[in-house]
Amino acid sequence: MLKNKNTPSFLRLTLGLGVAGLMAVPALAQSTAAAGSQRTYQEERAMCAHLPQDPAACAREAGAARQAARQGQLTSAPDYTANALARCAVHPPVERTACEARVTGAGQSSVQGSVMGGGLIREAVTTVVMPAPAAAPQGAMPAPVPMPRPVEAVPRPMPR
Question: Under a CB-based contact definition with an 8 Å cutoff, are residues 109 and 124 in contact?
Fold first, then answer.
């Protein structure tokens, strides 16, 4: 062990260990990401047995997702929200506000269903208070009385 910490050999050793440590961080992060990608792939392949989908197609999709993850092409949840909000832009302003409320979950909203079940149903409840009806003016004509319905002939049972 070195006794004097100010010697050039000690400084070179310290600097070398520091550089080696910094070089190992990206490799460690990459191996951790690869391990996470592999774990996700294995979980998705295991789910293929429980889905009503063709197992070969499920395996192909899991492999394609793993390859896209390795290339950094998978999108995250914020991208999904931005995509959904962009789809609201085609609606007129009144309907656009309701669409954005459903997507963001604002106000009284709920989400039912699942992607595995075929889709999500988003519902937003908007309460609109209607103005009170105006009082009928004095001397107004009363509402007409409905006419009675004509009596229909009831068929008689056939004799035995």
Answer: yes
Non-local (6+) Cβ contacts of 14 within 8 A are: none
Decide if 116 is inside a domain. yes
Residue listed under structure tokens 């931005």: 82
pLDDT value for 92: 94
Average pLDDT over residues 102-118: 82
Q: Is the pLDDT of residue 57 over 70?
A: yes
In a domain, 58, yes or no: yes
CA 92 to each of CA 33, 88, 89, 98: distance values in angstroms, whole numbers, following the listed order = 43, 9, 8, 10
77, amino acid identity: A
**Residue 118, domain extent:** 77-125
The total number of structural domains that make up the chain? 2
pTM to 2 decimal places = 0.37
